[in-house]
Amino acid sequence: MSIESLHRGIAPASVVPRAAAKAAELTTVEASDLSIVAGAARVTVRFTADDAASALRIGADVVADLRVVADLRASLVTERVKGTWVPVR
């Protein structure tokens, strides 16, 4: 998820833990991270899912929860296929 801006009063340090906690309500979270890409904060939450539909549903729930505290530029659910991250369909 690429963050455009945080809503008033939201501490930047709370965003990644919030995203990971939301995913953890639904599945196993393997990792979470914050990076800066093209000048924007990017939150990554890596989690397990049984299939593409489950992954998309979990991703949508995490995005919906983050929209409560931030405006997002973009979001994407990806999966690792033969060493490459590709969009889940």
Descriptive tags:
89 residues; alpha+beta; 4-stranded antiparallel β-sheet; globular
Number of helices: 2
Biggest sheet strand order reads 2-3-1-4
Q: Report low-confidence residues grouped into runs of 5 or more.
A: none
Helix content: 25-40%
**N/C terminus separation:** 17 Å
Into how many domains do the coordinates divide?
Answer: 1
- Beta-strand portion reads 35-45%
Shape: globular
The overall strand count is 6
Query: Average pLDDT, to the nearest integer?
Result: 96
Secondary-structure-based class equals: alpha+beta
Write the H/E string, N to C.
EHEEHEEE
Output the radius of gyration: 13 Å
Query: Main beta sheet: strand number and arrangement?
Result: 4 strands, antiparallel
